[in-house]
Design brief:
It contains 16 helices and 18 strands. The chain has helices at residues 12-79, 82-91, 95-115, 149-155, 206-216, 239-245, 248-256, 292-327, 329-339, 351-404, 408-424, 428-445, 454-472, 496-508, 541-553, 562-575, and strands spanning 119-126, 129-131, 160-162, 166-167, 176-184, 198-205, 222-227, 233-237, 262-266, 269-277, 284-290, 451-453, 476-481, 490-492, 515-524, 527-534, 580-586, 590-597. Strand 15 (515-524) and strand 16 form a beta hairpin. Helix 9 (329-339) packs parallel to helix 10. Residues 491-601 form the Histidine kinase/HSP90-like ATPase domain.
Length: 615
């Protein structure tokens, strides 16, 4: 059965406040997204209207200005006396008459040029010679019939014609101009005569057109491009217009979608673009409006929304925090009562009152349970102490009963008699065996003492191993390596001999090779250890795990291991459960029985070293 535990840390006030704040944040965020989208759509519509309005204003202003220049040009013919001057010259077209006509025409041509800033220069062409105001020099070797403009003059037949933009081919200034051709005749009937044709070439200055447009499109984010009938740029206002000239496909798309706003990109920037025809001219205006203005306007709206939303969230959070702090004040008092385990008084009929009632009932039940638990624990401790005392007395009684069955003096006297008879008979080995047996019994009985010096415990196991060595001969050998400083410590008697016996009967005896028992000791944290190691058959890992588990639990180990169980239990009985016996082994190679003991020296000892034969 799986138990699922959920940990909830933190104040409920903060949790509820955070929850409400998050809800408000989500709601405000969604509202801002929707509102921002609506604002962006509105701004885009405004930008489209702006670019359309800019194109319309530019077209109206430019067409008005150009049409004004053309209208004044038509009036110029009648007002300047141009007909009479040319008629007099055509009547007698000689050099003298040409000079008179040039002198008479210079003043009105110059006045017309000066009065209109759009006009760069004027050139009057007739069948009998050409006339200028004389203020600008002609291109050296100039002949109208030899320049590119002549093809447009020759092919056209309209009285008013706009030519394509070009460098001035007539005058030395070489300005970028748009030649406008005004065809007329000087006959009295005012009927056009191909034999008496007159053409007034009016060069419109492209820079003046650009300056004219800049007056109404001053913003850096707007760009105007004016194209002639062949798609050549008459003028460009701002860099975006120049960049557009390097994108012929995009320019064609704009001019094809006349009066329709398109979303275009130039040099990684977004623009709103629209194309519009200029009335009274064959020109086309292309207007570009950068979306940067729209983005800045949208960003300002978004920042305003964020400030308003953040302020609203902060105010909402503070109000929720204050209200929840007031609502949960009784809960905090209840928590304080819980910390000191006292009942809580609360008047009301809300959920906190129900919680208070449940808490008080739980506290009373808990106190009753604690009282019963303390009483039961006290009874259990008394019972365990009684059982432990009973077991200790029982084991001591069993040991004393066993010792009582043996008359020590009778046993020692009998063994001494046997030893003297063996020595008298020359049986030294029998004498030695009897001496070892006497020491073995003398230390084992120890006058009823349970705690003996480690030195006596070593002497006891040495006597036992000497007896066994006489029995097994070369099949058994042993070594004892105990530091002198440890021999002064005291321990429970009869610890090492059962382990040595276990090594002989379960390790060496069943092996077909010579066996060696090594007994060592050493210090360790919290005490010292005794180790009995044999090189017999060893213990399998499975059996070793079971044996150590039984020793740890304090139960009789399996497979007749009563001796090691007895050793382990007597250690734990006298020194506590922190000490005891553990087994180590490598199957087929070796086994170690390790005893962990405290460093113990009793304050008063009655052990007499003369009671045993120390060798």
């Amino acid at each position: 059965m799986n138990n699922h535990t959920h940990h909830h840390n933190g104040s409920i006030v903060l949790k509820v406040t955070a929850t409400i704040t998050v809800i408000f944040l989500v709601a405000i965020t969604l509202n801002q997204i929707i509102l921002n989208r609506h604002i962006n759509d509105t701004i885009e519509e405004n930008m489209e209207e702006t670019v359309l309005r800019t194109a319309e204003q530019t077209e109206n202003y430019l067409s008005t200005r150009v049409s004004g220049s053309i209208e004044r040009l038509l009036y110029f013919k009648a007002e300047s006396g141009l007909d009479s001057i040319l008629a007099n010259y055509f009547a007698n077209p000689n050099a003298a008459a040409y000079s008179v006509a040039m002198s008479n025409l210079a003043a009105p041509l110059s006045a017309k040029k000066v009065s209109d800033s759009l006009i760069s220069d004027l050139y009057l062409y007739t069948d009998y010679g050409a006339f200028t105001d004389g203020s600008t020099l002609l291109t050296p070797g100039f002949s109208l019939e030899k320049v590119a403009l002549w093809s447009e003059i020759r092919e056209g037949n309209s009285f008013l014609e706009f030519c394509t933009v070009r460098n001035d081919e007539i005058f030395r200034s070489r300005k970028w101009v748009v030649p406008v051709l005004y065809r007329f005749s000087v006959s009295s009937a005012q009927v056009y005569s191909s034999t008496r044709k007159c053409i007034l070439v009016v060069n419109l200055d492209c820079k003046e057109i650009q300056a004219l447009i800049r007056k109404i499109v001053p913003e850096a984010e707007s760009a105007i491009l004016v194209l002639d009938q062949e798609g050549n740029p008459v003028t460009c206002v701002n860099a975006a217009a120049e960049e557009l000239m390097r994108e012929p496909e995009l320019l064609s798309r704009l001019t094809a979608a006349e009066n329709t706003v398109l979303d275009v990109r130039l040099d990684g920037k977004r623009y709103y673009g629209v194309a519009r025809k200029v009335s009274v001219t064959p020109w086309t205006i292309v207007c570009l409006q950068a979306s940067t203005t729209a983005r800045e306007e949208s960003r300002s709206y978004l920042q305003l929304l964020l400030v308003e939303g953040g302020t609203l969230i902060m105010v909402t959070g503070m109000v929720c925090l204050l209200m929840l702090h007031w609502f949960t004040a009784p809960l905090r008092e209840l928590i304080n009562c819980q910390n000191v385990r006292q009942e809580f008084c609360y008047e009301g009929n809300d959920e906190i009152a129900l919680l208070t009632k449940s808490y008080n009932q739980m506290l009373r039940s808990s106190n009753e349970m604690l009282d019963r638990e303390k009483q039961y624990s006290h009874q259990l401790e008394e019972k365990n102490d009684a059982i432990e005392l009973e077991q200790r007395l029982k084991r001591r009684a069993e040991l004393q009963a066993l010792q009582a069955q043996i008359n020590p003096h009778f046993l020692y006297n009998t063994l001494d008699s046997i030893r003297w008879k063996a020595e008298a008979a020359g049986a030294e080995d029998i004498s030695q065996m009897v001496r070892d047996l006497a020491n073995f019994f003398r230390i084992g009985l120890s006058r009823g003492r349970e705690i003996i010096p480690l030195e006596q415990e070593i002497c006891h196991v040495r006597s036992y191993l000497d007896i066994q060595k006489m029995r097994y001969g070369d099949r058994l050998d042993y070594q004892i390596r105990i530091p002198e400083e440890l021999k002064k410590l005291y321990t429970v008697k009869l610890l090492i001999q059962p382990l040595a016996e276990n090594s002989i009967y379960h390790g060496i005896k069943e092996s077909d090779r010579k066996g060696t028992i090594l007994i060592t000791a050493g210090e360790e944290p919290g005490g010292f250890y005794l180790c009995v190691r044999d090189d017999g058959l060893g213990i399998t890992p499975e059996t070793l795990t079971i044996l150590n588990a039984d020793l740890k639990r304090g139960v009789t180990v399996s497979d007749g291991g009563y001796g090691i169980f007895n050793v382990n239990e007597r250690i734990r009985l006298y020194f506590g459960r922190d000490y005891g016996l553990e087994l180590r082994s490598c199957a087929g190679e070796w086994t170690e029985a390790v005893i962990h003991l405290p460093k113990y020296i009793p304050e008063r000892t009655e052990w007499d070293v003369s009671d045993f034969d120390r060798r």
